[in-house]
Specification:
With about 140 residues, the protein is an all-alpha fold. The chain is built from 7 helices and no strands. Helix 1 (about 10-25) crosses helix 4 (about 60-85) and helix 3 (about 35-55) packs antiparallel against helix 4.
């Protein structure tokens, strides 16, 4: 059965995007304005490691906080690419939605999966087809 999304997630992400726009906009924070995707890379790695450590600890408050930090860095990156007219946060989200639907034909289609090994093989086959769409041996 399909689960409905949390009701406030869209508005929360919209507020986060607006916060980033304010920080990077006129009169915003000089540090945030001067950041680039390359300069944020080290912070992304640090925050992901801190999230992994929080998960290992089982501390839900720390996990929540570190997830927020990762979301912030991702929102900053999305804003930067959008500012450059490269792609938007919506593009990235729609891309992952499409990819997960493609890679789960046993959930969103009519391809039965008999066991975990078949599931892994299916995933790898689909992934290879995505990377090499003109290779007939991967069909």
């Amino acid at each position: 059965m399909e689960q409905p999304p949390p009701q406030d997630i869209g508005s929360a992400f919209a507020r986060l995007s607006q916060l980033v726009a304010t920080l990077r906009g006129p009169g915003g924070c000089p540090w945030d304005i001067k950041q680039t995707p390359l300069s944020l890379k080290k912070y992304l790695l640090e925050e992901c490691q801190e999230l992994a450590d929080a998960i290992d600890s089982g501390d839900e408050a720390a996990i929540c906080e570190e997830m927020g930090d990762v979301y912030f860095i991702l929102a900053m990156l999305a804003a930067m690419y959008s500012e450059q007219d490269r792609f938007t946060a919506e593009d990235a989200v729609e891309s992952i939605i499409a990819k997960m639907i493609r890679r789960h034909p046993h959930v969103f289609g009519d391809t039965p999966v008999t066991d975990e090994q078949a599931l892994r093989e299916q995933w790898q086959r689909i992934k290879q087809q995505e990377k090499h769409p003109t290779d007939p041996s991967l069909s």
